[in-house]
Amino acid sequence: MTPTSPRAGAGRSEGVAALLYLCSPALLFLGAFVKPVLGLPLGVALVALLAHAARRGWALSAVPLPPRGPKFVVALLMALGVVALMGFATGEYCWDWIKHWALLNSLEQLPWPVRVELQGQPGYLRFYIGAYLVPAVLASLTGLSIVACTALWYGAGLVLAFMLLGSGGTRDGSRWRLLWAVPLLLAMAGGDAWLDVLLRADSRPITFSGFHHEWWANALVDHPLQYGSMLCLLLWVPHQAIPTFIVVGLLRRLRTADALGPTALATSMLALWSPYALIGAVVLFLAHVCGQPVLRQALRHPGIARGGAAVVATAFAGLMAWTLAHELPGGGLCVSCAADRLTRPGAYVLFIAVELAIPLLVLRRRLFDDPTSIAALLTLIVLPWIGGPVPDPVMRISMPALIYLFARCAHEIAAMPLPRMAGATLLVLLLAGPTTWGEIGFHVEGGARHRALPARDPMAAPYYTVWATRTTYTAQEFFEICGWMWRPQYFTTTPPPTWPVSASAPAR
């Protein structure tokens, strides 16, 4: 569908750019990490679908859009702020970035597929590396540092995410006031800081500022449990959060049959960036499609383009599942645990209420008017009861649902009459502000307040206090610092079955 207005033209360029951003690592992956008999036909089909989407002008929808120029400026400023908080301004990055730099350096410096020797054994990189491939290639081809290339790549993704999420509220409102949606979205979180401060014993007080409050529920339940704030997700796990923000932005603007195939294709790309997020995104995608007659009708008559997108999306997700399942460590979800936890529901009900306070208070009954919101709410209610000893599944499957509900809240507030808008904004700042402000202080101070706590204090654990103070880590150093128990999550002892036959002896 060719755009017929500036508003449609803006949707077209943002949609195509987002699709290219999500798919470009997949093309690199199919060419270097996959057997040609599998990667070549899938790569050719993916290129054909990308060309078709660009040629036809993928207009996302005719939902309200803020003025394009100011929207880009707001998105750029917010992206620069987030990139600076990540650590690019100071050179000091939180715990997870030891891993990020180790994998980025491995991909830049070693032949693909990546093979290393770890503790005298071969190690084959089997991980969701969508965020790392393009910066590694850019650094190799241009001679720029991997730090500069990563900052540019993440910054571009953030601009795209914020432009998509800064458009299209659920109600008609001032197009200019929609510009408030992105800053407001980044301020959203659960009431983690309030509970973290209240649950601490009088002899171990903490404050709202300078502390990472996301793990407050660990004091109440027998397994690690966390829902990340919007800012926390972007600062700790940008390799998974940025593409998820983009996919949710595309999903929120999915209104037309022409956008169905490209949106499905974009969603499937999460299999390379964040397979757990893909699980959560698929639930929302299906609810969104089933809830709109025009999209349901398109499923009955898919046509060549939509049918091709569905086939490629399914094939790519299946290929990634086959790759990542090779020597997959256990410890994910624990469905059987739900029966026991339902007999002592207090802590779990409290967790859900604290984390979802803003959607429940802002949207209220309107939360149940939207099938996608209902699916997001059900996802977030179910996950805490089935969390396992490894926190990643719950933390990452929850991302699309959290982003979707918080984005809807941000748009609802931005579209309110000014007095109500001010009141709703104040409510967000009162409930979630301490959590977000604590996260900002935590990153600005490099975890200094956690390091000042006694060594035996749970809030003085390494993941609060150990920071990446350089960008030259190797895979060996990553495991030496963070623990060798993480090795099976990233490196296998034999090549995955989808790897090229030539991937034999590990490089030293």
TrEMBL record:
The chain crosses the membrane at residues 26-51, 72-91, 132-165, 177-195, 270-291, 303-325, 345-363, 370-387. The keyword Transmembrane helix applies. The keyword Repressor does not apply. Keywords: Membrane, Transmembrane, Transmembrane helix. This is Uncharacterized protein. It comes from Pelomonas cellulosilytica.
